[in-house]
Specification:
This is Response regulatory domain-containing protein. Keywords: Phosphoprotein, Transcription, Transcription regulation, Two-component regulatory system. It is built from 9 helices and 5 strands; from the N terminus they run αβαβαβαβαβαααα. By secondary structure, the protein is of the alpha/beta class. Helices cover about 55% and strands about 10% of the residues. The chain starts with a helix and ends with a helix. Strands 2-1-3-4-5 form a 5-stranded parallel sheet, with helices on both faces.
Length: about 240
């Protein structure tokens, strides 16, 4: 009965945000799509999946919704070939992942671990959702790197704070790229600078030696000077 009541509540919420009986795309007030960030939503429940998708789209996010952790990994390219049926957003960068905790095959916690173990995607913020408010689950997910743990049904107020997570993740990724770029540039620039410096030092050394040679009299010149009559008279006196 409790499960039926929860499902009924979800359907009611879905009706409120325009899920049931509505197949048209959510667009901004002007009529044009204006999403800035892309969210990968993962849930085995079609009702929850549609609800999350509509909530995110109504907040101007692009959304890709899949029904399992395995499909999410395939979409990201971590579980083999990238899926070609991922709702038409295959080439978009993912800014945030929202995943249900309890799913058959692969739990949301296991999906979280795989993402955080990936060098390519570990900077992507991950938000866990669950119908059960279990403290041990919440603690485990946050310890593993989840940005937040939301209790279902997800509400509009939950969605409004997601952008902060995405901005933070985007900044972290940009910082990582800048760091890599500086390292790569340093690897190429520093040896060239060192070579140029060595060449300059060598040239300066040669110039100094040449200058010294041009200003100091040679041995033969000294000999000829000392053999002159005036030099001999000076020595006798």
């Amino acid at each position: 009965m409790a499960a039926a009541g929860t499902e009924s509540l979800r359907w009611n919420l879905a009706e409120e945000v325009g899920v049931s009986g509505c197949n048209r795309n959510i667009v901004n007030g002007s009529g044009s799509v204006s999403e800035e960030f892309h969210v990968l939503a993962v849930d085995d429940s079609i009702v929850d999946r549609k609800l999350i998708e509509r909530l995110l789209k109504s907040s101007s996010f692009k959304v890709t919704a899949v029904d399992s952790g395995t499909r999410a990994l395939q979409y990201l390219g971590l579980g083999g070939e990238k899926s070609s049926s991922a709702v038409g957003f295959n080439d978009l960068k993912v800014n945030l992942i929202m995943t249900d905790y309890s799913m058959p095959g692969m739990t949301g916690y296991e999906l979280l671990k795989k993402i955080k173990e990936s060098k390519a995607f570990k900077e992507i913020p991950v938000v866990i959702m669950s119908s059960e408010n279990v403290l041990t689950r919440i603690h485990s997910c946050l310890e593993e790197g989840a940005e937040d743990f939301l209790v279902k049904p997800v509400k509009k107020s939950d969605v409004t704070k997601l952008k902060d997570f995405m901005v933070k993740g985007d900044q972290a990724e940009k910082g990582k790229r800048r760091s890599i770029k500086r390292k790569v540039e340093g690897d190429f620039v520093e040896p060239k600078m060192a070579t140029a410096t060595n060449t300059t030092i060598a040239s300066s050394s040669e110039e100094d030696q040449s200058s010294s040679a041009s200003h100091s009299p040679s041995t033969s010149s000294l000999s000829s000077l000392c053999s002159s009559p005036s030099c001999k008279r000076s020595r006798l006196q």
